């Protein structure tokens, strides 16, 4: 059974993100699976810290983007989601020139709060970052 109450396609989501922070970082939703959102993000000059690796802040932007989108997609039209806490653990570096993949899944979907976890992986499949986003569910 699907989590989603809003029938958004990756193309619709990506078009909506074009003029946002997610668009600036080239975050692209690639799949809306029955239980998760999938995305990619390149690692280039916009994403790199001074030593040529993925900046942790970009991983957090990727996580918050996917978690907020996912939360909104589970809510009826009269409700919205706002991020209230995000954390990230960085396990492995990602080099400039690589592309990370991300999968965002729910840990908790309550009436007033949601918690979403995003796993960000390097091209070799190694876990680069795991991040959790807590959203408050509010009336629009």
From TrEMBL:
Belongs to the thioesterase PaaI family. This is Hotdog fold thioesterase. NCBIfam families: unchar_dom_1 (TIGR00369). Residues 51-129 form the Thioesterase domain. It comes from Falsiroseomonas oleicola. It comes from the Bacteria. Pfam families: 4HBT.
